[in-house]
What does this fold into?
Amino acid sequence: MGIKTFKPTSPARRFYTASDYKELTKGIEPEKSLLEHQTSTGGRNHYGRITSRFRGGGHKQRYRVIDWRRDKIGIPAKVATIEYDPNRTARIALLHYVDGTKTYILAPDGMVVGDTIVSSKNADIKPGNSMTLRSIPLGTTIHNIEMKKGKGGQLVRSAGTGAILMAKDGDYAQVRLPSTEVRQIHLECHATIGQVSNIDHANISLGKAGRSRWLGRRPHNRGVTMNPVDHPMGGGEGRSSGGRHPCSPWGQLSKGLKTRNNKRTDGMIVKRRGQKG
It folds into this structure.
């Protein structure tokens, strides 16, 4: 797993870098039984109105069905392939269970073809094994963490991320997330051992605008480049810095305003992200 650079044969190639994909299994096709069709929305809702700006185009993709729940308890599985997934930044692994079932999971860093993994409270502490937080030793790096028992992993699923199990108190564990937030999670929630694969993803340079278009990202226009009719920060004689605090086209402040609003789960946050001490 590394980053490949290219000779500057054009201005776009000068800063173009890509993964070397050496960790992937060569010459294989995705498991057909785990592929689903998906339609690109272009950021539009069912009325045809744009609800997510600057999206559209991109390469056609098939969705790989991922097993977030890891609920085949006590049944060992062998890692058949490590594959690329166009829908996410991490690599995925195809598991062949001894009972004949096939599933995809997020591939943790260090997993290789031929490894045997299992979901069990008595499993070894090795990358890919899944168990409840109650069974995981303190200080262990984990990912794919459930927030609600049986719902499936919702936290720490991006490439190169990993959370740390900090403490256990009563029925809850304290987990430090990649954002530095420390959060309480019930001890009966499942998590997977290890750090998510494709650690070098954060260091890749797209190199050219067209590569963003392949990913379905359209050009992002700044408010100050628009006209007053289109944005509160638009207009002015010549180039201006906006003349007011940065905001969205609808006046929502974009710097410093707290937009988090989930009072039901606020009590689960032990330490907020960015908080000192």
Observations:
- The helical segments are 11-14, 209-214.
